[in-house]
Amino acid sequence: MPAADAVRDDDAAGRVYTVLVIGAGFSGIGAAIRLRERGIDDFVVLERGDEVGGTWRDNVYPGVACDVPSLLYSYSFEPRTWSKLYADGAEIQDYILDVVEKRDVRRFVRFGHDVSALRFGDDDGIWRVTTNQGVFRARNVIASYGPLANPALPPIDGLEDFGGEVVHAARWNPDQDLTGKTVAVIGTGSTAVQLIPHLVRQAAKVVVYQRTAGWVLPRYNVDTPPAIARVFAALPILRRLTRSALFRITELSALGLVWNTVLTSVLSLAGKIFLRSQVTDPWLRRLLTPDFRPGCKRMLVSDDYLRALQADNCQLVTWPIARIGESGVMTCEGVEHRADVIICATGYEVTKTSPPIEITGRGGRSLNEEWARGAFAYKSVNVSGYPNLFFTFGPNAGPGHTSALVYMEAQIDYAVELISVMTNRRLTWLDVDPRAQAEFNSELQERLAGTTWNSGGCRSWYLTEDGFNATMYPGFATTFRKMLADIDLHDYVASGDLELAITGRVGGDTMDGRTTDGVDPR
Ligand code: NAP
Fold first, then answer.
1. Which of 91, 117, 369, 510 has its CA 20 to 30 A from that of 135?
2. CATH code given to domain 3-150+350-432+471-487
3. Of all atoms in ligand 1, which is nearest to the CA of residue 214?
4. Which among 91, 346, 349 is the best mutation to test ligand 1's pocket, defined by most ligand atoms within 8 Å of the CB?
């Protein structure tokens, strides 16, 4: 019987995996690699798509690329010499495919498995994972479904009545032919600034609907000179040092992007100088000048976006959209702009409130209900009441200034370490003490209040409707990494033989089992 079929039979017979990973994007694959490195082979990765890669598999719109230097936007344990400073999406997807083959993790991935629910068993400490292909069981779950996996169409009246095609940029059809067409683009965020320069070259006319002007800085994307590629191949240590130098530079930029400092004024001046150098018309410059502090929304980096907006076949519309009709977009001053295709570069259903799947923890508690007004966790990885459930890209683990993969790797390492601790000490489960979680979050939210995201004068996808910041980490990546490298078991409660098993910081004192009642975990 082929191995895959054998696994299927095991699942039907109630096989309990040590670990089940949801999603085979950057973080799910990273988790699989780290688990294997720790000698944990009894795991499965469930992926709803038909290939690995997550957002880099799905995003194939023209111009898709990394907006942080690629040397940083790659696993620390799988360095690569990239063709450019900021690699294209296709090159990033190739990298993920290469890593999957090299690390032999494809055989752990089950494609076409869409997870809809997780339920913790109070009696046996096992997670039941409901998918479109049946129920899986696992002692530990690593939720790597990604914060930007589900595209969001804008809730604009009449969108469904539009007679032409409505496309979300994150679900681009590579065969889409825009020649001779009038294209409406809604949104001017990170995706739009990459896409619009390409649309202007393809379509007859491009009308860009801007709700809020963002800060744009040049990307200075350059090809990696062949000589540098040769040096990196001969002396990999130099590539590591370059990565480390880039990391330090981006860390410094946090000083201007996360907090309001003199560097924020420098960034704002740099943005204005770049705008002036690119846009000659003062009225257009005025329309493109942001009214919030740099960093409040994600910084946009592009060498050609501002020029593309001034192309003869491009029009910037800043009147709010009133509705969409059968033949185009109506703005609130009463003008109807005809369109053949509407492209929504309007972002994602970000998991800042309820998770995208139903999660039921100890005693039947519901994470969807607990997170309804804003997600929270302990150190971004665990949530009290949901033992042995680990998040990558969990709540408050987003950076505004450097590579998200740095944070993701720290979360993966934390999860794998705790899973090893449980396996080695024969614990059924570990759960965060709600008091530790409440303390963590009260300090975190206090620190967030002083950041540009919370007080920089904008509304971004980082915040919930009522202004709760459930997405960003208020500090340097170095601090985040340090926080997750320090596992304090005193902050957990456990099942099993505490005397035998539990120590404080891994290798420290004996922990007491604490009650978990009556504490607001937020
Ligand atoms: P985004 O940055 O959230 O931008 C969405 C745009 O759509 C904004 O301009 C927003 O306007 C506009 N919009 C949303 N709803 C609208 C509505 N109802 N009416 C009019 N305009 C509306 O989304 P994104 O560009 O897809 O980027 C999302 C995130 O993905 C980024 O922040 C980044 O983290 C990531 N990303 C990364 C890369 C990369 O290279 N690594 C590339 C692309 C994206 P407002 O500003 O007024 O809300």
1. 369
2. 3.50.50.60
3. 46
4. 346
